[in-house]
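Hi,

I'm pasting everything inline rather than attaching a file, because the server keeps stripping attachments. The sequence lines come first, and each chain or strand is labelled.
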Amino acid sequence: AQSVSQHNHHVILSEAASLELGCNYSYGGTVNLFWYVQYPGQHLQLLLKYFSGDPLVKGIKGFEAEFIKSKFSFNLRKPSVQWSDTAEYFCAVSGGYNKLIFGAGTRLAVHP
Amino acid sequence: NAGVTQTPKFQVLKTGQSMTLQCAQDMNHEYMSWYRQDPGMGLRLIHYSVGAGITDQGEVPNGYNVSRSTTEDFPLRLLSAAPSQTSVYFCASSPGLAGVSSYNEQFFGPGTRLTVL
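And the predicted assembly:
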């Protein structure tokens, strides 16, 4: 069965610190991978996605993620976080028919 | 375009009551789905539809019914509410056809926060 594991449930950083959120997936076929963000009180928005090509994917707001097939990983990175990045981040894998399998999420708190 | 809209935003039910959560999209998307979001568990797929007249079960379908009579609407029915159904419910849509464009971005609605007492 497909599954997504996010290692960090809560992350606290100071502004300007670098961010890396881990995501590992379990899936036997061709994968499509996503990172979604949910700002407080808002709905989910797509940060970035990978479906083929360059394994380093750049998304909105300075975020990027690297697909490492050998490690079944799709970690999210940002070199310098801002207070406005405080949110919950979800990694997801597409399991066909556009069905998304989500990880449990990582709550990020950025302190000024 | 309004995108994906959901009503109501908040709802409180008593155990055993039934209700329908509404979801509509104006983007002519083929694919629509319902998720529930619970703390520490991410989002879990309840039901999905790949087009009008076609629905299927997701990961946690028990206690919920769906139908898709039009492309635009995808209501979620709680038959007999239980406290375990207290959650935030998100509807999503995507333009992809089944098995063709599984990488397509899904667009989410604002959610319905449901409490069952």
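Residues 37 and 43 of chain A are 8 Å apart (CA to CA).

If the labels don't parse on your end, tell me and I'll reformat.
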